[in-house]
Design brief:
- With 181 residues, the protein is α+β, with helices and mostly antiparallel strands.
- The chain folds into two domains: 53 residues, no CATH class; 89 residues, Aspartate Aminotransferase, domain 1 (Alpha-Beta Complex), CATH 3.90.1150.
- 46% of the residues lie in helices and 12% in strands.
- A four-stranded antiparallel β-sheet has the order 3-4-6-5, covered by helices on one side. The chain has a two-stranded antiparallel ribbon with strand order 1-2.
- α3 runs parallel beside α5.
- It starts with a strand and ends in a 15-residue tail after the last helix.
- The relative contact order is 0.12.
C-alpha cells in the first residue's frame, strides 16, 4: 500500500492525498475516508484527478524538483560562503529543508529572537527531537524562498550567529521552553 499527499507536490494548502492499495481494501478505505473526512471538496478532488489523468502532474513535478534543487543548491552555497566556523549542516538529498547545528552552548530559541530582529526566521530544532534535545539545531526551509533572496537571508543569519558568539549571554535561553506533549 502507498499513501501520499498532493500538498508537497502541488501546493501547501491542498489537503488532498492519494492511496494505492489492493482492490480488496478499496471499499473499506473509502468508508474510513468518508467517516474521517466529509469536507473535502468534490470539485477540488475532480480537478486534481483530471490534472493527474492528463499527465500534467508529471510535468509539474519535473519543474518543482528542478526549482527545489536550485533553491537547495543556493542555500548550501550561501551556508558554505557565509557561516562562521563551528556551524555545520546537513546536505539533504530530498525534502524542503536542512538542519543546521550551532556551536556548543548556543541555543536556537535564543538565536531566533535575534534573527527575527534582522528579518530572518527559522524553526528551532527543539521541535524535531522527541527527547527534548535539539537546542543547538535549527531548521532552514528553502521551498518558499526565491533563489535571489537566499544569500541575503543566510548573510543576516550568519551575522546573528557571529553576534551571539561575541556576546554569549545573548545565545542562551533564560526561560527554557516547556516541551509540548
Amino acid at each position: 500500500m502507498y499513501i501520499g499527499t498532493f500538498s508537497k507536490i502541488l501546493f501547501p494548502g491542498l489537503r488532498l492525498g492519494w492511496i494505492v492499495a489492493p482492490p480488496e481494501l478499496i471499499e473499506r478505505l473509502e468508508m474510513a475516508k468518508d467517516l474521517a473526512d466529509i469536507h473535502t471538496s468534490p470539485i477540488l478532488q475532480a480537478a486534481v484527478f483530471h490534472f493527474c489523468r492528463q499527465r500534467l502532474l508529471d510535468r509539474h513535478q519535473v519543474r518543482v524538483l528542478r526549482e527545489s534543487g536550485r533553491r537547495r543548491n543556493a542555500l548550501l552555497a550561501a551556508l558554505a560562503r557565509r557561516m562562521p566556523a563551528g556551524v555545520t549542516w546537513t546536505e539533504s538529498q530530498g525534502g524542503f529543508s536542512l538542519l543546521v547545528s550551532l556551536p556548543e552552548g548556543m541555543d536556537s530559541l535564543a538565536l531566533l529572537e535575534q534573527a527575527v530582529r534582522r528579518g530572518v526566521a527559522f524553526t528551532s530544532g527543539n521541535a524535531f527531537f522527541v527527547d527534548g534535545g535539539g537546542e543547538h539545531t535549527l531548521r532552514l526551509t528553502f521551498s518558499a524562498i526565491p533563489v535571489g533572496q537566499i544569500d541575503e537571508g543566510i548573510k543576516r543569519l550568519a551575522e546573528t550567529i557571529r553576534e551571539a558568539q561575541r556576546r554569549p549571554e545573548r545565545a542562551r535561553v533564560i526561560h527554557p521552553a516547556v516541551p509540548l506533549v
